[in-house]
Amino acid sequence: MAKFLATYHGGGEMPADPAMREQMMAAFGTWVASVGDGMIDPGAPLGPAKAVTSDSVRDEETRSVEGYTLLSAASLDDAVELVRKHPFVSRGGTIRVSEAVAP
Predict the structure, then answer these.
(1) Rounded distance, CA 99 to CA 73, Å?
(2) Pairs from 21-26 (Cβ < 8 Å, separation ≥ 24)
């Protein structure tokens, strides 16, 4: 089985209303359970970031990646099928799925 990194893009902010946040987390938990053995790490939302280059370190003004999940699947197409029903997508977000290529 190959490993895949699913990164979350867009989708808006977490709702301020605690009941709405709880509903979102419940939907996420249901999705995690539906992935079964394909789940390596359900991941987490990402916070502030810094960009590191050979000659500088700077604060990132905007987040291009809002969160991540690590999956296991037989193929890229199979990994994509695991995230198609993710509640983040139904909120208008995009999930990019990339295969971790072994050297």
Answers:
(1) 10
(2) 24/87, 24/91
CA 78, CA 74: separation in Å to the nearest integer?
6
Q: Is the pLDDT of residue 39 over 80?
A: yes
C-alpha dihedral, 81 to 85 to 91 to 97, nearest 10°? -20
The domain that contains 22 carries what CATH number?
3.30.70.1060
Q: What is the mean pLDDT of residues 77-89?
A: 95
Q: In what order do the strands lie in the sheet with 2-9?
A: 39-45, 67-73, 2-9, 94-99
Domain that holds residue 32: 2-99
Q: What is the mean pLDDT of residues 48-70?
A: 91
pTM of the complete model: 0.87
